[in-house]
Amino acid sequence: MKIKASFFGPIKRPWPEQTREVEIVEKTTIRVLLESFGYKVEDMRRVAVVINGKKQAWDTVLRENDDLRFVLMAGGG
Hints:
With 77 residues, the chain is α+β, with helices and mostly antiparallel strands. 14% of the residues lie in helices and 32% in strands.
C-alpha cells in the first residue's frame, strides 16, 4: 500500500526531496516506518507526526493513502 511522507523544517530526511510516495506493508506503524528510514529512538523523540491533519502517536497503524508530515519539534523558552 502507498502513503505520502513529507519532512518539514531542519529535520533529517531519508532522501533529498521534501515529499515522497512510499510503499509499505499493511499494519506498519509510524515507529516502524521511521526505523526503516534509519531513525533511532532518540531521534524520534524530537519529531512530531501529523497524519491527515491530526497529530498521532508512534504506535498508530498507517492506512492506504495516509498523508504523513514529520516536523522537528522546537524547544526553548
